[in-house]
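Researcher: Here's a chain I'd like modeled. Treat it as a single chain, no partners, no ligands.
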Amino acid sequence: MTSHGFLRSPDGTLMVVDFPGAILTSPTGINSKEVIVGVYNDANFANHGFLRSRDRTFTTFDPPGSTDTIPYGINSAGTIIGVANRGTGSYASRTKEKRMSKETRISSPFDGEGMVGGL
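Model: Modeled as a single isolated chain. Structure tokens:
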């Protein structure tokens, strides 16, 4: 079974947002420049982050060593907030800035088991 993402415009127009080759696509955020972030599952059901630009070009991203990436939002400057699992079973919140050129870990008082839900 394949799950599809979508974008609904203010006028009611629906557009499918599917990462190429994914078995599941879930958009999780959009900014004022119409850049969308989200998560997709590959054929092995692994979660990866994606960015879809206004021209409908997709870019995949995962922090180094991550086995599970879930972005939650993007602001107008292009900073992405989300979580990543490095195979330890716990998640660390992260931001990605300027089209994934810089990664910053956000420390959690919960031993890496917290989530940041907004930006």
